[in-house]
Amino acid sequence: MGTDDLITLLSVEFEVFGQVQGCFFTKYCKDLALQLNITGWVKNTKMGTIVGKLQGRKAELEHMLDWLSTTGSPGCKIERCELRNWVYLTRFDYNDFSIRF
């Protein structure tokens, strides 16, 4: 992986399945996104999953996606994390990271 790969701006949508609601998953997700300078949003769905959109540099997105796929918030049980709509960006569409309702 070259240096250009690490600073490439990307956007990706995600959906996390499992026991991921009722364990502050969205709050922990927002906290980590802010630490990693990732913009976008996250929210609970009526189907019991967590969905969102992430935008950031490739290196930070990889860290965040690993957390979404394997770690999550304390007490959650992640079954899987689906990723879709990968897009290269020239600039961010969002100024911050928010929890949507």
Q: Give the helices and strands as they follow along the chain.
A: HEHEEHEE
Q: Give the rounded overall mean pLDDT.
A: 94
Relative helix content: 25-40%
Strand line-up of the largest beta sheet = 4-1-3-2-5
From the spread of the alpha carbons, the general shape counts as: globular
Major beta sheet summary: 5 strands, mixed
| DSSP strand count | 5
Strand content: 35-45%
**Low-pLDDT regions:** none
Give the termini separation.
Answer: 37 Å
Description:
This protein is α+β, with helices and mostly antiparallel strands and 101 residues long. It has 3 helices and 5 strands; from the N terminus they run H-E-H-E-E-H-E-E. The chain has a 5-stranded mixed β-sheet, covered by helices on one side. The model has no long low-confidence stretch (mean pLDDT 94).
Gist of the model:
The chain is of the alpha+beta class and 101 residues long.
Give the secondary structure arrangement, pairings included.
Layout: H1 3-7, E1 9-19, H2 25-35, E2 39-44, E3 50-57, H3 58-71, E4 77-88, E5 97-99
Parallel strand pairs: 2-5
Antiparallel strand pairs: 1-3, 1-4, 2-3
